[in-house]
Every structure is written in C-alpha cells, then in structure tokens.
C-alpha cells in the first residue's frame, strides 16, 4: 500500500476562504512559533466567496457613531425575527472596526470623501453599518499576508473527515483532488472554515452558476462537524436570493441603496426602501415575475458609481457579460432570477453552533465563516471569527493540565477548561507531595527514625499513586471533574474520621 503523507500542526485550518485566511494570519500573529497548516481544496489565492473581489464590508460599528454594537444586535435580531445568539453577534460587531483598520493597513481600499468620512450604506432596518470597499484584489492581498506570516498552505487538499482522540478533535484526513494522494494532519486544534452550501444538488438545467454562494461550497464542514459530534442548528432555514439572470452576481443593494427601482413583471414598483427577499420570492411564486431593476432615471454619476463597484471591484467579468448581451443600465432594465435553494450560515441562520470564543460543542474544534452559526454575519462575521478562533485555538492546546502550584486556576478559567474538554489535575492532588513529605518528617521525629531518600520517595510514590487512582475512580464513576472528585474524596475522609474519632472537631 502506498504510504500517505503525514503532517503535524498546532492549529489546522480547514478552508482557505475569507475566514480561513484571516484565521491563519491571526494564529501566526499570536504566536509566530506555532505551526499553522491550511487545507484548501482550491488555491488559496483565488478561493472562496471573496475571490472575485468585494464591494463592501457589510457590518462595521464605527466608534463614536450611532452605529453601536448594541444597535446592530437589535436590528439584526429584527431581521432574524429573534432567532440568533445575541452574545455571538455582539462580540462580532465589537471587533469589526479594528478588523477594518487592519485591512486598511494591509492596503485594502475603503474610499473616503473630502471630509475623510467613509461611504456608509443602510441595508439594515436601523443604522448604516455597511461600508463601501473598492478592492478587486482583496483575496490575493490576504493570501499574501498569510504566506508572509509563515502559514503552511496545502492547496488542492479536500478535507474528508475529522480525527478524534477520545472526545477531542485532533486533526483531519484530506485528499489531493488532483493526484488522489491522502494527507493526514495531526493537530492540537482544528478550525473549520469550509464555507456553507451553495445548493443541495446539481440543478435540473445543468447550469452550475445559478447560485448566490460560491459554487465550490458544498457543505463539507457541516458533514464533518456532525460526524465529530458537534452541535448544529438552523438547518430548517433555507435561502433563496435574487441575482442577475444567467450570471452569479448580486445587484440588489448596490443599486437600491443608490435610488434604483425594483419592479415586477407588471411594472409595479416596490416602495419599500429595502424590499426583503421573501417579498421578491412571493412575487415570483405568484407568477408576477421576473423581477427587474430599473436605473434609467438615475444620474450619470450614480450609474457610473454602480458600474465602478460592479465592474472594477466585485466581479470584473460582469462588464464583458453585459457588453456581450448589449445591456446598458442607461437604456434598459436588468432582469433578476432566483437562485437555487441553499444554506449559508453567514447569510442566514444555519451552521455549527459556536460561543463567543468560536468554540464548538466538541473540544478542540472551532468554526468561523459561513460554516458557523453567526446569524447574518456576512463577511464581517467571517473576518472577526476567523481572528477569534485563531486567538483561542492557539492558547491552551494541552489535553491535560497539572496544577503544580497552589490555586493557579481561577473559577472562571476552570469552567472554560472543563467546557473545552481539558482534564485538570487539581493542586490539592498534584501539589500535595510537599505536605506528604512533611508528614513523613513528623512521623520520623516522634519515633526517632531517619529514613533514607529512597525510602522517602518509595512511600511518597505509594501514597500519591493511591490518591490519584482514588480521585480518578470517583471522577469516572460520578462523571465529575478531577477537582470535584478530589473534594469528594477529602470530605469522605473527614466524615470517616469524625465517625471513628468523635473528638475530632
């Protein structure tokens, strides 16, 4: 049998899209010495939903403005009809401004006016959180940064399954999509950044690009997380978006926020400032479609602004598409068409449930981007939780912690370690050797004995091993932490002593 390639890592990142590349950068920023490996089934320079550029950072809470994290949680909660984890979204909103500033430092363009203010768009019911971005090279900039920091990227590796050691995720198995070679990565922590699901299967018409999400997003991460035992949520919520007919390209908010009109097949205009997708879909299902966007009434300046965003920033290929079809925003309407039904955590309510630290319910497994459940987090959610997961995945990667000092772990930290599946051998047990030897000294003094060092060590080992085995047995039998098991053992001994020696206080 042909031997397979084996690599090791401190942090393994599955997927090199927007969340994965940001996680790789942040992990190396946190600790340049730790080994960070990325498995990407395409080429990280050109993979993921942002490979074709990006026209905006959807959610940014700018300090000192009305767009506070609290307001974002409120307006997003309304958009999600209350179905979202508020703490997760709040933490995301808190970090968006810092992420944006870092992107600017790396050369990403966020245009400002003559007053130095950013172009803010209102796509939420309350507040202007969407900041215009003009960066067709966004993904290549980020990929270059990941390489610059020293992340080891394995392109063309499709991850198949997560590895587990007991209850903890400890790596993954992948396959080279070009050669068929198997690659195994043993890792202390794994971050899933594999994207959502663009569709549930091949389309009936065979047209692969009738999707909103990146067509390469096939739900791999959902399946791997489920098999590993992670908690998933929101799979009953599906999505349909509206894109330009015959091309995978959004047009709605770029145009509607700049004064375009949305019409149905009967030329009836929707007066809402931000008509919801459900409204458009209901029109389509009621045979009042196709939906159309009309920009003929807009000024030349506004039309040029839309064209610049579409043709130079997010999807430059669109310009050739429109010219080939003879489409001009100034003279005709743009027909929209619904996408295939899909799941996309970052744009909806689907994914691996995570906490504010990006941790899943399985120890050692983290998630970020569209594979995670950050309701309507979009690109901002992918970027921020890419950073958050990297910060936490690289902190404590041990399976066991032995407390060699008195009281080294706070109550809060103890709870976090327990949640992460890390076994803590408590100080009352691990650090008791000195107290035991002090007891030996007392015994020798009252009996006028003098033990050799070997004798002391032999007695010490016997007592410490016996104590550990007793605590470990209680831990497994009662399904409690070792710290609680040690307390239970101590209380049992006190009760026994009280029973046989009533004078004991």
Topology:
Elements (H helix, E strand, L loop, with lengths): L4 E10 L3 H13 L5 E5 L13 E4 L11 H11 L6 H20 L14 E2 L8 E6 L2 H12 L2 E4 L1 E9 L2 E9 L5 E11 L27 H8 L4 E2 L8 E3 L7 H5 L4 E3 L13 H9 L6 E3 L5 H15 L2 H9 L8 E5 L12 E2 L12 E3 L10 H16 L6 E3 L8 H9 L3 E3 L1 H4 L2 H14 L6 H26 L3 H19 L5
Parallel strand pairs: 1-2, 1-9, 2-6, 9-16, 17-18
Antiparallel strand pairs: 3-5, 4-5, 7-8, 8-9, 10-15, 11-14, 12-13, 13-14
Helix pairs in contact: 1-4, 1-10, 2-3, 3-10, 13-14, 14-15
The coarse silhouette is elongated
Q: What is the β-strand count?
A: 18
CATH homology superfamily name of the largest domain: FAD/NAD(P)-binding domain
Cα gyration radius (Å): 29 Å
Number of helices: 15
User: What top-tier CATH class of the largest domain fits best?
Assistant: Alpha Beta
What is the architecture of the largest domain at the second tier of CATH? Answer: 3-Layer(bba) Sandwich
What percent of residues are in strands? Answer: 15-25%
Distance, first to last CA: 70 Å
Tell me the structural class: alpha/beta
Give average pLDDT, whole number. 87
Largest sheet: 7 strands, mixed
Overall domain count: 3
Extract low-pLDDT stretches. Answer: none
The CATH topology of the largest domain turns out to be FAD/NAD(P)-binding domain
What is the share of helical residues?
25-40%
């Amino acid at each position: 049998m042909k031997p397979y390639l084996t690599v090791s890592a401190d942090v393994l990142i599955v997927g090199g899209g927007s969340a994965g590349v940001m996680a790789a950068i942040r992990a190396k920023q946190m600790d340049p010495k730790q080994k960070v490996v990325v498995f990407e089934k395409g080429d990280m320079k050109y993979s993921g939903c942002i490979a074709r550029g990006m026209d905006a950072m959807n959610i940014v809470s700018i300090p000192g403005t009305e767009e506070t994290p609290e307001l974002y949680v409120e307006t997003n909660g309304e958009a999600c009809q209350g179905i979202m984890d508020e703490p997760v979204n709040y933490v995301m909103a808190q970090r968006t401004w810092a992420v944006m500033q870092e992107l600017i430092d790396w050369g990403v363009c966020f245009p400002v006016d003559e007053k130095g203010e950013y172009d803010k768009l209102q796509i939420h019911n309350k507040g202007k959180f969407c900041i215009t971005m003009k960066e067709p090279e966004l993904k290549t900039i980020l990929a270059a940064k990941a390489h610059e920091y020293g992340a080891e990227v394995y392109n063309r590796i499709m991850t198949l399954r997560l590895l587990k050691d007991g209850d903890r995720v400890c790596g993954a198995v992948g396959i080279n999509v070009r050669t068929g070679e198997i690659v195994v990565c043993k890792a202390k922590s794994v971050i899933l950044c594999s994207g959502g699901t663009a569709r549930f299967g091949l389309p009936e018409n065979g047209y692969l690009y009738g999707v909103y999400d990146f067509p390469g997003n096939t739900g791999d991460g959902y399946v791997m997380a489920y098999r590993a035992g992670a908690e998933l949520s929101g799979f009953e919520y599906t999505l349909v978006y509206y894109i330009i007919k015959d091309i995978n390209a959004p047009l709605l908010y770029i145009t509607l926020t700049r004064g375009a009109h949305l019409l149905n097949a009967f030329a009836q205009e929707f007066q809402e400032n931000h008509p919801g997708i459900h409204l458009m879909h209901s029109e389509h299902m009621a045979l009042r479609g196709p939906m159309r966007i009309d920009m003929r009434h807009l000024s030349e300046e506004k039309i040029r602004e839309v064209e610049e965003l579409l043709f130079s920033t997010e999807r430059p290929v669109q310009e050739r598409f429109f010219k080939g079809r003879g489409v001009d925003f100034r003279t005709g309407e743009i027909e929209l068409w619904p996408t295939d039904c899909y799941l996309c955590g970052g744009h909806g309510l689907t994914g691996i449930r995570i906490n504010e630290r990006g941790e899943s319910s399985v120890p050692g497994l983290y998630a970020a981007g569209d594979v995670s459940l950050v309701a309507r987090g979009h690109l901002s959610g992918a970027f921020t939780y890419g950073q958050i997961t990297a910060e936490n995945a690289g902190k404590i990667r041990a399976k066991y912690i032995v407390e060699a000092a008195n009281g080294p772990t706070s109550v809060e930290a103890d709870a976090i370690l327990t949640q992460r599946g890390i076994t803590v051998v408590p100080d009352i047990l691990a650090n008791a050797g000195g107290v035991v030897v002090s007891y030996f000294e007392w015994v020798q003094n009252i009996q006028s004995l003098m033990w050799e060092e070997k004798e002391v060590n032999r007695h010490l080992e016997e007592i410490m091993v016996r104590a550990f085995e007793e605590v470990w047995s209680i831990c497994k039998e009662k399904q409690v932490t070792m710290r609680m098991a040690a307390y239970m053992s101590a209380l049992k001994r006190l009760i026994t002593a009280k029973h046989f020696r009533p004078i004991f206080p």
